[in-house]
Design goal:
By secondary structure, the protein is of the alpha/beta class. Helices cover 44% and strands 16% of the residues.
Length: 256
């Protein structure tokens, strides 16, 4: 299998040595060269990285990379095996290698991280407490007008209490092409609407956050056989701080 897993990076960082991984410098336009491929060659949206995050790397791969299977992970977050209280070196040993992806893709259409469960929030309310209700209202309008067959999916996902996060996946390149054509058309239409309405707030990383929700919308009516695996982190997560922020936003609103 010709599999390439993008490792979205914006700085020098350790990367697994397996050749299944392709480090890509996202948002590299005008930045010092890091020694690996940048997202600013060929057909690209590298200059949009501050708003689109890792999606500038995904766009580059969609338009410029030839492979059979394409995936996306992050410089500090990978698909791997469940960890408990491992140190960094132990975590590195649990990151998937080519053989792991080949094994899963023999019987599955797509590899995804295990879903985040919100319990006391829906996908919609969690987003609105952290960002702006205007975003989802306008995205829903765009889907209603341009992709009405996805409207039921959008509303169903927004009312759920679980979500696949981080824009992480592995699937056939042909599936990625279908997904990206749909995804970026919606995001570009929303970006154009924002520009026309002179809205300047909420732009930092905005489209990266929206796309996390849209992946599940796109998947909702697909009959794909899915493998959900652990997303392992190379840096410790402060779950107390994250939980506190989650509750603060829900009960007191987002900070100005």
């Amino acid at each position: 299998m010709n599999i390439k897993i993008l490792v979205a990076s914006h700085k020098e960082y350790w990367t697994p040595g397996d050749d299944v991984y392709l480090p890509i410098h996202v948002g590299c336009t005008g930045k010092p060269y890091l020694g690996f491929v940048g997202d600013n060659t060929g057909d690209n949206i590298s200059v949009k990285n501050s708003n689109y995050c890792e999606l500038t790397g995904l766009y580059w791969a969609w338009k410029n990379l030839d492979c059979d299977y394409l995936g996306l992970c992050h410089y500090r977050r990978y698909f791997g095996r469940k960890k408990f209280f491992d140190g960094v070196e132990e975590v590195k040993q649990k990151i998937f290698q080519r053989a792991d992806f080949e094994y899963l893709l023999k019987d599955h259409d797509i590899i995804l991280p295990q879903q985040r469960r919100y319990y006391i929030e829906t996908v919609r309310s969690q987003y609105e407490h952290a960002h702006s209700s205007r975003d989802l209202e306008q995205i829903e309008r765009i889907i209603s007008e341009c992709y009405p067959n996805y409207l039921r999916s959008f509303r169903a996902v927004m009312n759920r209490r679980r979500l696949h996060l981080w824009n992480m996946f592995v699937m056939k390149k042909s599936m990625v092409e279908s997904y990206c054509e749909w995804l970026f058309d919606i995001l570009f239409k929303y970006e154009n609407w924002m520009d026309q309405n002179n809205l300047v707030d909420q732009k930092w990383r905005l489209f990266g956050f929206i796309s996390e929700r849209l992946l599940d919308v796109w998947l909702f009516n697909k009959n794909f056989k899915t493998a959900e695996v652990e997303a392992v982190m190379l840096e410790k997560v402060n779950w107390f701080r994250k939980g506190s922020e989650f509750l603060r936003r829900k009960f007191f609103g987002k900070a100005n």
